[in-house]
Amino acid sequence: MFRTHVMICGGTGCTSSGSNRLHTKLEEELKAKGLENEVKVVQTGCFGLCALGPVMIVYPDGTFYSMVKEEDLPEIVEEHLLKGRPVDRLVYKDSAEEVVAEELEKTYSLNDTAFYKKQMRIALRNCGVIDPEIIDEYIAMDGYKALGKVLTEMTPEEVIQLMLDSGLRGRGGAGFPTGMKWKFARASQGEKKYVCCNADEGDPGAFMDRSVLEGDPHAVIEAMAIAAYAIGADQGYVYIRAEYPIAVKRLSIAIEQAREYGLLGENIFGTGFNFNLDIRLGAGAFVCGEETALMTSIEGKRGEPRPRPPFPAVKGLFAKPTVLNNVETYANIPQIILKGVDWFRSIGTEKSKGTKVFALGGKITNTGLVEVPMGTPLRTIIEEIGGGIPNGKKFKAAQTGGPSGGCIPASHLDVPIDYDNLIAIGSMMGSGGLIVMDEDNCMVDIAKFFLEFTVDESCGKCTPCRIGTRRLLEMLTKITDGKATLEDLDKMEELCYYIKENSLCGLGQTAPNPVLSTLQYFRDEYVAHIVDKKCPAGVCKNLLKYSVISDKCFGCGMCMRACPANAIYVTDYTAPGKKKPAVAIDTDKCVKCGACIGTCKFSAIEKK
Amino acid sequence: MKTLAELEAIREKMRGKVAVREASDNTTRIVVGMATCGIAAGARPVLNTIVEEVSKMGLSETVTVTQTGCIGLCQYEPIVEVYQTGKDKVTYVKMDSEKAKKVLEEHIKGGKVVSDYTIKL
Fold this sequence. Notes:
The complex is a heterodimer of chains A (608) and B (121).
Chain A: E1 4-9, H1 12-16, H2 19-32, E2 39-44, E3 56-59, E4 63-65, H3 73-82, H4 95-103, H5 114-117, H6 135-140, H7 145-153, H8 156-166, H9 178-187, E5 194-199, H10 208-215, H11 217-231, E6 235-241, H12 245-260, E7 265-268, E8 273-282, H13 291-298, E9 322-326, H14 327-339, H15 341-345, E10 355-362, E11 368-373, H16 378-385, E12 395-400, E13 406-409, H17 419-424, E14 433-438, H18 443-457, H19 463-480, H20 486-502, H21 506-510, H22 513-532, E15 546-548, H23 558-562, E16 568-570, E17 583-585, H24 595-599, E18 605-607
Parallel strand pairs in A: 1-2, 5-6, 5-9, 6-8, 10-14
Antiparallel strand pairs in A: 1-3, 3-4, 7-8, 10-11, 12-13, 12-14, 15-18, 16-17
Helix pairs in contact in A: 7-11, 7-14, 8-9, 8-11, 10-12, 11-14, 18-19, 18-22, 19-20, 20-22
Chain B: H1 4-18, E1 28-33, H2 36-40, H3 43-56, E2 63-68, E3 80-84, E4 90-92, H4 97-109
Helix pairs in contact in B: 3-4
């Protein structure tokens, strides 16, 4: 019997900052102190504060340690695990924490921090709480109880009705009602049907699906079995990208364990229901996140989309009726069945029920994963949960929906976030990547970044996407080079609408969104690039000019030594009160790397 | 596994083992003094006994067992304190495993403070 459990994050973020080594070391340390039978070390899924890894939580007190190093372990073992005194300097603190700690006689529970307090964890409920490689721990958290209930107490029609009533919408981005998909697939004729899971998370900056699979793989397996029962399928596939090795490994272990327990396979719970599940690895092409391309790829063919209709619910994988849902969508389902429709409907907004997981990134203090009820304003996510923007910079915009989405400017910070509101303000939910940008980000450059991505990832099957996105990128480059005219801006907008209307699949239809939404909210920045030939944020290199303010220059020569292009030379002008002559920058030689600004102690170099 | 009963059996068996991780809304907190003085006086077996007994008695869902530093009454160690929502703190002194079992049985389960072991200053 263990009195204390130490949970060490084994997600991708913390693994890359050394959590595996920490785990081994901690076990050695516990053994040395004779505590190996009292303290249990558990490798678990993502806690959400990825930037602060490796992180660990000590239960029962719930003390949350961040950025733990190997040399900290002896102190943690001796002081905290043996004597019960948390090691203050390693405890994660945010502004709310200090007040709370005083009130609660110095307990440092993660649940009391501003980062967690406003969160509500449904899809991530077991992430960081259970060991994802032990099926018994999932069962202890009511795992497979929903499947048992569905198989023994409900008809497939009742399951579908429950999903319809719950109002659950697809978490992959488009927000299509999950129950509708199931209903259509159930209604389709055919002996053989399939259930698929889209784990081909491709948006730059989104990693919630990976974290769910790493931290709670059984939830997805259980939900897929429920979906299979509802539509009448007996085979499922999880399509996951090969570049998620930890998620693939944990999911494989989970499937194996579920098979051993008879929770996958023949005659589950003695009800005569059969369901098998297999993994299909994707090579990482963005277009394979599009449903028809994904299924084509599972079939072993080149991952290209095809026109819809027919929709997958009618003619999907191997031309059979198929249900395809996203990882996060599945992770919600067992909870909805156990806790009921009313509970789920009480969370969120009128048309968007439940919670949404966001991957916070960019210019934000707490980079990581958060789950909030639908309808939470962006301001709460960024300022309270995310801890605001570092270095006292000003918020400029938040990008949601990745390459298919758009930017939300400061004026819309208080809009409650749900599917419909985001579309109304010119963005979209997407899979939930949320990239925060401050005054140092150039919006034209951001649009260009996403276009570069879609140009790379366009599969090339249809012309509007293949050629249109390339032309669009060329126009953006012209703007950032300072060579565009205002007519180009109008042409660019026209091209955007053309691509949207004529592309075959979601990739092309949404590719111009980053351009359109930045044009909508930050047109002045485009105009500044075109008319004034200036980049207001100082990002677009070709519009920047570095120069020395000669009256501030002491002629120390630090910048000359730092310059990799030998572009700085000594002039014959000595400023009043200075002993040495000032330097100047030869703009023909200057490569605009910014090295000189970093070395100047007198702020004598400016970029404009 | 072919029946729901088997699933439930695994759940029951595992519950006590993972309940420690969701102790936040527990109404009872048992704290054992585990500073140098406490350990020297034999607090570790007391702590371990309490953890085991709480699980055996099926109290894991409502009782949190944790350790703390020196309370300042070193000559009375091992000290065990019981915090219950809405009630005064009870401090037991000079504890051992047998006394701990009695406290769990009579106080935590039965609701009656074992006044023989409480602190008298």
